């Protein structure tokens, strides 16, 4: 069963607002819709907390432990405000793959950090096609099995259609 859209969106808004106190420009309508769409396409909005077929993806954003570790080793450790933010949000001090599945606040923060590392601006919040391409390039990557069409379809089903 998928997350309740209203409650999940409210939680993402709260997490982004808290992150904004430490990291400027992290909170925007575009970031919110990108995260909602990412959860829709990656896990059918929280329906699957472990990747199907024994894949490594975990949580509503199906982040792989290697991606989480890379966030910490090559990005977070060099940004003291972000380290403080993660500690204050969820007492995280380093990679904890189990939290990707069991701690929604941590999973949201990790997904947003993955996108913080991307070059270029997030498309406008109402540009679903642009958000889909941004997800494919910066989150799912060219090696991933996800398709832009899947993002659009699931965004419309889980985010718009609720």
Strand and helix map with partners:
Layout: H1 5-20, H2 29-43, H3 65-74, H4 80-90, H5 97-102, H6 104-116, H7 128-140, H8 148-160
Structure description:
There is one protein chain. It contains 8 helices and no strands. The chain has 162 residues and is mainly alpha-helical. The chain has one domain: Lysozyme.
CATH first level = Mainly Alpha
Identify low-pLDDT runs: none
Number of domains: 1
SS content category: mainly alpha
Query: How far is the N terminus from the C terminus?
Result: 14 Å
Which descriptors apply to this entry?
Lysozyme; 162 residues; mainly alpha
How do you describe this structure in short?
With 162 residues, the protein is an all-alpha fold.
């Amino acid at each position: 069963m998928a997350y309740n859209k209203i409650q999940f969106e409210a939680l993402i808004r709260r997490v982004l607002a808290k992150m904004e106190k430490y990291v400027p420009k992290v909170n925007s309508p575009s970031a919110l819709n990108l995260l909602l769409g990412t959860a829709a396409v990656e896990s059918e909005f929280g329906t699957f907390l472990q990747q199907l077929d024994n894949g490594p993806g975990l949580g509503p954003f199906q982040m792989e432990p290697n991606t989480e570790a890379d966030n910490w080793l090559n990005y977070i450790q060099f940004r003291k405000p972000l380290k403080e933010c993660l500690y204050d949000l969820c007492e995280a001090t380093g990679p904890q793959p189990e939290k990707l599945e069991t701690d929604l606040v941590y999973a949201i923060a990790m997904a947003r950090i993955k996108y913080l590392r991307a070059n270029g601006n997030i498309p406008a919040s109402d540009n679903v096609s642009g958000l889909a391409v941004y997800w494919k390039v910066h989150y799912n990557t060219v090696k991933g099995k996800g398709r832009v069409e899947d993002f659009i379809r699931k965004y419309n089903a889980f985010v718009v259609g609720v």
